Structure prediction request, 150 residues.
Amino acid sequence: MNPEILQTINNLRDANQKANRVSDQAASYIREIESMLTDSQITTEAEIEVSAFIKLKHNLIEKRSRILVGIAEYIEGEEGPEELDTSWKPWAECDRTTKLLTSAAVPKLLEEIAKKINTDSIYADNATAALNKPIPPAPPSPPPPPSRRR
Prediction:
C-alpha cells in the first residue's frame, strides 16, 4: 500500500479513537451531573445557546434531571432567517459530533441553573418576609348611621 495512504489511514484511526475516548468521558460526566441534579431535587429549568442552531437545556423528564440538546430549524423569512422549530432530545441520545460540540457548554448551563435558583431564593425570602409580617388589625367599623324617626 502507498505509504501516504497508510499514514492518512493511521491518522484517521488515531483521531477517531481520540474522539471516541473524549465522547465517552463526556458521557460519564453528563450522567454524573444529571444524577447529582436529580439527587439534589433540582427542578429548575434553564436554557442556553451553544451556537445559532444548537441549544442546551436542563429539564425534568419522568422526574429525572436531563440535559437536552435542541437543534433549531430555520426558514428564510422576509427579514432574514426565522426559527421554525427546535427539536429536543436527551444529550445521551445525540451523535458523537453533537456531544463533542455541546459538552464544553455544560458548565455555562449549570451557571444558568444556579442564577435561576438564586433568583428563586430571593423570591422565597421576599415571600417569607411578607407572609411573616404581622397583619394589622382591621379598622373599627364605622358607627351605624343615626336612625331617622318620624
